[in-house]
């Protein structure tokens, strides 16, 4: 399965109980996609001589949702499109819209990040406050995103969780990218979501740390003097030799591609990596923390 296909599958599972998501008005591409799908659905329904109420009964969704989807105000679930395809006898043309529609469910900035991660051949990441999004379980991600203020609505929360879960398809890519993570010790001990959620999260880290293309290192709290005290650092490298990086305390926290700026980030990351526990020591450390959780 392709990276995009796997992302769609994961997002669909995460959205299983939602009738659809609101369209982000600032996402021009997303608005255009959903509006086009809505128009196509309305045209086919009218061509079939079906009233909105009859169509709603046939697809087993509310009439209000039908109007919202057709007016481009609501992102339909894949099951909605499949049922519409069947009811309107579209021969698979409506169901074929599922993958494009699924991508619109993610906020634009997350889509852009997922695209970069999907193209990278190497990822370097240092995390000081929270576990990297690619390392998070769905339950941990939901608990962490629930702490945002102003608080996310239920709709926004589920959308954010599904987007984060979908990014994890990077682990299944072939050929596999090289993934390197250095996490501060505190990120392994903070009981985000409670002890049971943390325990499941630590078990997941152990599984990931055993993958041959994944290296997870722990920076002990006792190491108080290293160049990561300014916050997160991340660098993504691509097949053509280009790269993009970002750090919380450098370059206005904005993504950078200038080789001179990237050298600074790689230098800092290299020192952090050297001062952290080795991958083998880190795995033993995570297992020890797990045993006391």
TrEMBL record:
It comes from the Bacteria. Residues 40-95 form the HTH cro/C1-type domain. InterPro entries: Cro/C1-type_HTH (IPR001387), DUF5753 (IPR043917), Lambda_DNA-bd_dom_sf (IPR010982). Pfam families: DUF5753, HTH_31. Residues 1-22 are annotated as: Disordered. Residues 1-12 have a biased composition (Basic and acidic residues). SUPFAM superfamilies: lambda repressor-like DNA-binding domains (SSF47413). This is Helix-turn-helix transcriptional regulator.
């Amino acid at each position: 399965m392709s990276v995009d296909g796997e992302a769609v599958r994961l997002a669909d599972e995460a959205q299983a109980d939602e009738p659809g998501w609101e369209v982000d008005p600032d996402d021009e591409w997303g608005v255009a996609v959903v509006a086009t799908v809505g128009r196509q659905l309305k045209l086919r329904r009218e061509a079939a001589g079906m009233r909105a109420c009859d169509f709603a009964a046939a697809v087993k969704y509310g009439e209000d949702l039908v109007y919202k989807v057709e007016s481009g105000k609501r992102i339909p679930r894949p099951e909605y499109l499949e049922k519409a395809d069947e009811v309107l006898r579209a021969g698979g043309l409506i169901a074929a819209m599922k993958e494009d529609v699924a991508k619109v469910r993610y906020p634009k900035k997350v889509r852009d990040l997922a695209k970069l991660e999907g193209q990278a051949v190497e990822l370097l990441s240092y995390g000081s406050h929270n576990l990297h999004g690619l390392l998070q379980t769905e339950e941990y991600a939901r608990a962490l995103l629930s702490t945002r203020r102003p608080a996310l609505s239920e709709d926004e929360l589920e959308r954010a969780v599904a987007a984060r879960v979908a990014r994890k398809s990077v682990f299944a890519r072939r050929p596999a990218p090289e993934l390197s993570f250095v996490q501060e010790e505190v990120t392994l001990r903070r009981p985000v979501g409670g002890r049971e959620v943390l325990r499941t999260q630590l078990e997941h880290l152990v599984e990931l740390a055993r993958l041959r293309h994944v290296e997870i290192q722990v920076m002990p709290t006792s190491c108080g003097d290293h160049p990561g005290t300014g916050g997160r650092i991340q660098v993504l490298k691509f097949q053509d030799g280009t790269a993009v990086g970002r750090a919380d305390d450098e370059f206005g926290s904005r993504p950078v591609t200038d080789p001179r700026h990237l050298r600074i980030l790689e230098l800092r990351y290299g020192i952090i990596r050297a001062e952290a526990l080795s991958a083998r020591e880190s795995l033993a450390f995570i297992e020890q923390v797990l045993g006391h959780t």
